[in-house]
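User: Design a sequence. Structure:
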């Protein structure tokens, strides 16, 4: 959330023009529904913002945050890297839209709309994002759906990129309109020719770089041969630990399809923090422990208890000086302690694994191998996507601004995060914003066959963790599914009621 005179470092000079190898892989994945990498922020607003004011915020943001005006241009032949260029045909009306759900619209209605959007490909001939204002929600509320490709940035980067659209007060003074970025009429043929012209120099430069790098390694090996050998061996061992499964896959979560669904809960962030503190863990530890509890209840209810399952947790590698564009994260594999009934034990086991994985020398292994993977044809990459995934579940944690924020005069009440399903059964996102924490689970319907049971288990698993916060025990609020009366006496597998309890404040 920046003021009108702030410089967030997101201008032309701050963001690299060339796609990294990892970002290129994300971009190529947009071609297939099994590798599509769209991420989305769903916000609930306390009122319907003025449309023209809403639209102008994104107009200004697209002028200041260059990546919102840029599209990807691929060289006709691979003689040069793919490049972000300012779209000479940029049309804000394509990116900023509004729709209306049948009144009174609920979060369930908006989530169902979000699923259709996430399963639909973004137009790769344009900048890879859309912002949709959803009108017609109950109580005069509205929602926003910010959708962008993972090729643009990761969750933390997206928070910085879209900070321009928010204010810290409802009636904030209008911001000055930034100047228009200079369009770049560059084609794939242009990039190909540019690459051909620089090819001899690039070859020589690459050779010199390789020689210098080799000499450097030789020098290190000569001065400290034992240290050099140990470093290479340790990195190889670390790499092996990073890619292998940390637990056997769940027999219930094996199947994959192209049908997805999303369920969400919410709680006070302070309650989750107190629960984590009581167990001598972090908020992230408590979040993952609640998720493990949900999976324990789900497996037990279906008569297939498991002790652990493979879970991947993205770790933010973004430094303060890094640009908002691009991806700067690494995934660490955990053996999620699903079988532990005691939430304190779950928190401590998770904490021990997370500390160990963060210290791995090869934590950014995917970044190291990405250049090699970009050489593979799309068909091979798509075929590999399902077979190389070492987890059943991925779980992200994205902290946002802790105070109140507004967009075009409407207060943001809650935010829910929806991530892609890169070969996994479920993607889970924790969003902490404005004093509340939301947990959104987007899953493959073939893997989670009983959606009502999962919703109840999700609530039950996090209630177990929140009980650590003290008496009276705080409880989660179901956001996307019906409330259940007398939850203290109801088992996760019991029936549901039709009453909803979400009361945004």
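Assistant: Done.
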């Amino acid at each position: 959330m920046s003021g009108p005179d702030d410089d967030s470092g997101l201008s032309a000079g701050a963001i690299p023009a060339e796609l990294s190898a990892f970002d290129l892989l994300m971009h190529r994945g947009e071609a297939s529904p099994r590798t599509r990498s769209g991420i989305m922020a769903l916000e609930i607003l306390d009122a319907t913002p003025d449309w023209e004011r809403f639209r102008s915020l994104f107009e200004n943001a697209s002028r200041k945050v260059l990546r919102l005006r840029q599209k990807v241009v691929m060289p006709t032949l691979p003689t040069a890297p793919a490049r972000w260029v300012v779209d000479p045909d940029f049309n804000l009306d394509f990116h900023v839209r509004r729709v209306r759900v049948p009144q009174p619209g609920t979060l369930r209605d908006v989530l169902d709309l979000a699923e259709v959007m996430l399963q639909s490909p973004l137009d790769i001939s344009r900048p890879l994002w859309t912002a949709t204002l959803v009108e017609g929600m109950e109580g005069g509320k509205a929602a926003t759906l910010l959708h962008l490709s993972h090729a643009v940035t990761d969750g933390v980067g997206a928070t910085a990129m879209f900070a321009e659209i928010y204010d810290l007060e409802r009636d904030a003074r209008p911001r000055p309109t930034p100047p228009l970025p200079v369009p770049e009429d560059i084609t794939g043929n242009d990039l190909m020719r540019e690459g051909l012209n620089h090819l001899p120099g690039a070859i020589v430069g690459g050779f010199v770089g390789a020689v210098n790098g080799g000499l450097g390694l030789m020098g290190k090996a000569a001065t400290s041969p034992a240290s050099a050998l140990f470093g290479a061996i340790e990195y190889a061992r670390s790499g092996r630990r990073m890619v292998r499964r940390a637990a056997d896959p769940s027999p219930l979560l094996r199947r994959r399809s192209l049908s997805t669904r999303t369920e969400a809960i919410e709680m006070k962030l302070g309650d989750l923090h107190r629960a984590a503190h009581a167990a001598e863990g972090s908020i992230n530890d408590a979040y993952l422990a609640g998720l493990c509890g949900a999976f324990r209840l789900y497996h037990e209810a279906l008569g297939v208890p498991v002790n652990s399952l493979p879970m991947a947790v993205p770790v933010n590698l973004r430094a303060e000086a890094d640009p908002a564009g691009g991806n700067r994260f690494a995934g660490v594999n955990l053996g999620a302690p699903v079988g532990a009934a005691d939430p304190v034990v779950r928190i401590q086991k998770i904490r021990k694994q997370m500390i160990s994985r963060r210290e791995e020398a090869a934590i950014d292994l995917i970044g190291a191998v990405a250049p090699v993977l970009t050489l593979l044809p799309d068909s091979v990459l798509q075929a590999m996507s399902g077979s190389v995934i070492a987890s059943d579940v991925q779980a992200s944690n994205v902290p946002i601004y802790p105070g109140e924020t507004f967009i075009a005069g409407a207060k943001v009440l809650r935010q829910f995060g929806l991530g892609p399903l890169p070969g996994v059964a479920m993607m889970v996102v924790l969003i902490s914003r404005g004093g509340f924490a939301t947990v959104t689970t987007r899953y493959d319907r073939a893997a989670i066959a009983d959606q009502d049971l999962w919703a109840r288990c999700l609530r039950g698993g996090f209630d177990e963790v929140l009980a650590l916060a003290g008496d009276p025990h705080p409880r989660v609020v179901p956001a996307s599914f019906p409330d259940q009366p007398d939850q203290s006496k109801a088992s996760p597998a019991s029936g549901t009621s039709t009453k909803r309890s979400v009361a945004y404040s």
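The domain at 260-397+423-478 is CATH 3.30.559.30 (Chloramphenicol Acetyltransferase). The longest strand covers residues 96-105.
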